[in-house]
């Protein structure tokens, strides 16, 4: 094999040096064998073909087990095996050696099947000639080599993927674990009526920051899990069930704020969407964001749901969540139109620390075919509040 | 560290910690020998020897009425934990109020002669 690799890797080597290629010819018709020997003898000045012939599949298997060949020429009709089985049996024992199937006109379909199953090529007997055969042999060796390189690269990429998933899982899990006592002790201090009020306020800030770190880790982990989930495995939820839960949650989390939410929903229809628990946490996140950034004590929100038909005949529900908070200038809005975690914009947003939870939602919602973006509540005047729009595919 | 934190918090909130263990195998043995049985068991997932889901399953084989509160930073453990019979799941890090409320709730289910 080494002689071939050198020759194949560098075409000047082929010209300047003589390469010896070892060929195993599994063929019981001695006339055919003689013909091929003659063709290959005149094939090329730089190449010497060293042909070994056996006339049964069993002998071929035995031979490939003991010796190394650069290529195998295989007749499908042998005394001890016929058709595709001949190829599969030999391919199974020497998967790394390129096999060229030689076949008669009557068996061309089997030969095509063999190529689908991993044979490098098939050549019709009776149509053979020296140059065609030589080129077929050389190409089959080169193709096999590329296949192997590709296979190795794919395996390397897969293992790098597994490694980074493992690191990420480890990181997410252990940081969440480490945050547990930090959050618990800080909460104890902030709830301790005997502690000085300054100390309690500072402790409450620790709790708040730990909670944010925790929810950030959870969002990323959720996104990572969603990326690996097939589309038909996402649960379906009814928005009319979610809205009261989400509203209750945000009121509980921001007891100091007066939050009023009004709804405009289509009547007499189930608002079922794909995304299950992800939709729940996204809605929760959007409302919590609004409450968090609202600078006055009062926050007025409105939630509107409208049907959307896509050109591609897919149906969606569009959810519009408006608030009268401080709003978002256009240059910030642009970041949320992002898309996939691979996009420049996503990474750009991340590196600028732009409301990372919304960025994560935008990638998440893209995973099940939806979209998230931000507009002004009052068109053209961002300071009057933001409107978050979610387009979600309808669930059956 | 986490176990010490739990013990301190539980004590502050008036619960009695009757036993603890750093791995799943040992937890099962300790549970089997406890008399009376605890009202609530707090279970982590990523444990040496035997993970939390397997440990929960084995504890429920010993006592089908045991109340296991599964508390883990591993979000993917939620559904297997509940499906082997854990009575509740809480993600780490948690808020104390929620943690304490869940223990109280499970303790009440365990019977009137109990709770912290």
Task: Tell me about this structure.
The complex is a heterodimer of chains A (396) and B (116). Chain A is elongated, with a radius of gyration of 34 Å. In chain A, 52% of the residues lie in helices and 21% in strands. Chain A has 2 domains: 2-128, Rossmann fold, CATH 3.40.50; 230-393, Histidine kinase-like ATPase, C-terminal domain (Heat Shock Protein 90, 2-Layer Sandwich). In chain A, helix 5 links the parallel strand 3 and strand 4. Chain A has 13 helices and 12 strands. Chain A has helices at 2-9, 11-16, 30-41, 57-66, 84-93, 108-116, 130-190, 197-227, 239-253, 276-293, 330-333, 344-351, 356-367, and strands at residues 19-26, 47-54, 71-75, 99-103, 121-124, 236-238, 258-264, 272-274, 298-309, 315-323, 371-378, 381-393. In chain A, helix 7 packs antiparallel against helix 8 (197-227), helix 9 runs parallel beside helix 10 and helix 10 (276-293) packs antiparallel against helix 13 (356-367). Chain A is of the alpha/beta class and 396 residues long. Chain B is globular. Chain B has a 3-stranded parallel β-sheet with strand order 1-2-3, with helices on both faces. Chain B is mainly alpha-helical and 116 residues long. Chain A binds chain B through residues 172-174, 176-177, 179-185, 187-188, 191, 207, 210-211, 214, 218, 221-222, 225, and chain B through 1-2, 4-5, 9, 12, 46, 73-76, 91-96.
Task: Provide key terms for this protein.
heterodimer, A: 396 residues, alpha/beta, Rossmann fold, Heat Shock Protein 90, 5-stranded parallel beta sheet, 5-stranded mixed beta sheet, 21% strand, disordered N terminus, B: 116 residues, mainly alpha, 3 strands, globular
